[in-house]
Design goal:
It contains 20 helices and no strands. By secondary structure, it is mostly helical.
């Protein structure tokens, strides 16, 4: 496979990751766990524990997690096999060059939004840790720009920060749950009614899916460093069990016990300020990932639209500033709405990419041939109207149809319409060719 000389901070943003640059199972798995073992997952679980019983929260978490596992593994496998990020892979899996631009923008906006939300929590934790001596605005820019500088160094730094932060996070959360069980019976908590306005299981499952749906779809951004499909399977499975199910349900129990969804208050009351600060500061590693994927998407967008090969490090610096400003103006206030929208806007993308890559195999021949050479396919993928119709239909059904689980509805409808639409389109082309020959 051809080797590419990488500029500082670029990290194969516009090329395949060569086999020589692939990482160990531990390196990619700890990054995946780090994506779940963080304050955002804690926020999600606390929100569910404030509006659902433990049983209903568990059902919703399992339903939402199954969707994430299927999407994450399938797309992660494709990313590992091709050595391509999500935005690049999309060019040859249903979206073409122009469609991948739209996808890249959505991923970038989603990740930047998550960055703003996470950074708001981190800054609030610093303010509380200093008893208000550090102004919130100053803390917001301190944390946001500090994380941005780390991300410029690429995947290696993601693995290092996750290796340090994940164990600390799990220990701090462990202290929290032990503290709760000293004063509350586990079985009593299982029967406890939530303190806040009730949520439905369908909406909660969509929140679970929405909480990491972007993470599932950008799995290729990290799995492209995996050595094989088996590593991708264990990376996604272990990450889901430890992070999604484990952290989510612990947060549900803590919210039921403390009768609040305020994660900072929960951790301070159950573990003390130091452990709470450990949990809050875990935003460093997840915001590393948010900015990393956003920077990959933006570089792909500029390459696609303007034929400009921007340096990922410079792009990271710019969008890090944008995300920091978003956190300063209060994006955290729209947390639940943000999750619900993502939960129906993003799944159709996965439905289309999975059907195209694994079922229709539209550009598999070109991908296989270029992969053997370590290059990208010479032919550009084409954005079909069917892609846009399937995407729009999935979003509309997911957002407006009241029955079932919106995220699953959006995923299945988009995949079905794309599959049927492409078959009809191919059939129409064949009939047209036959008619011309007969004439």
């Amino acid at each position: 496979m051809a080797e590419q000389k990488q500029a500082f901070g670029d990290d194969y943003s516009l090329s395949r990751v060569p086999l020589s640059a692939r990482k160990s199972l531990w390196s990619i798995t700890i990054v995946r766990i780090g994506a779940f073992a963080t304050i955002s997952q804690f926020m999600l679980g606390a929100t569910m524990g404030y509006g659902l019983t433990f049983k209903d929260a568990l059902i919703a978490t399992i339903l939402g997690s199954l969707l994430l596992q299927i999407i994450g593994f399938l797309l992660g496998y494709a990313g590992a096999k091709e050595g391509l990020s999500t935005s690049l892979l999309a060019r040859w899996t249903g979206f073409g060059r122009h469609g991948s631009t739209i996808l890249g923008l959505i991923i970038a906006i989603s990740c930047i939004g998550w960055f703003g939300i996470q950074n708001s929590v981190f800054a609030s934790g610093l303010v509380e840790a200093t008893n208000g001596k550090l102004p919130l605005l100053a803390a917001t820019f301190l944390t946001g720009l500090g994380v941005t500088l780390l991300v410029i160094f690429g995947f290696k730094v993601l693995s290092i920060t996750a290796t340090i932060a994940v164990p600390l996070f799990l220990v701090a959360v462990g202290f929290g749950i032990v503290s709760v069980f000293k004063e509350n019976s586990f079985f009593e908590l299982l029967r406890t009614e939530p303190a806040g306005d009730s949520l439905t299981i369908g909406i909660a499952a969509t929140m679970v899916a929405g909480g990491f749906i972007v993470g599932a779809i950008i799995t290729p951004d990290y799995s492209r460093f995996a050595r094989n499909g088996k590593d991708v399977f264990w990376m996604t499975t272990i990450g889901l069990i430890v992070g999604e199910l484990g952290i989510n349900m612990i947060a549900v129990l803590l919210a039921l016990a403390t009768r609040t969804s305020d994660v900072v208050s929960i951790m301070v009351s159950t573990t003390g300020l130091l452990a709470a600060l450990v949990v809050v500061s875990s935003t460093i590693k997840i915001n590393n990932m948010n900015l990393y994927s956003a920077s990959l998407s933006v570089t792909s967008v500029f390459d696609s639209v303007f034929k400009l090969k921007l340096n990922r490090g410079i792009v990271t610096l710019i969008i890090g500033v944008v995300g920091t400003v978003l956190s300063a103006i209060g994006i955290l206030d729209r947390f639940v709405d943000f999750l619900v929208i993502l939960g129906v806007l993003v799944p159709p993308i996965a439905g289309i990419m999975v059907i195209d890559y694994f079922v229709l195999k539209t550009y598999r021949k070109e991908l296989d041939q270029s992969r053997a050479l370590g290059t990208l396919p010479n032919i550009e993928g084409v954005l079909s109207p069917i892609t846009l119709i399937a995407w729009a239909a999935g979003f509309i059904v997911g957002y407006f149809v009241p029955w079932g689980i919106p995220s699953l509805n959006a995923l299945f409808i988009s995949g079905l319409i794309y599959y049927v639409g492409q078959l009809v389109l191919q059939s129409a082309k064949k009939n047209s060719v036959v008619t011309v020959k007969n004439d």
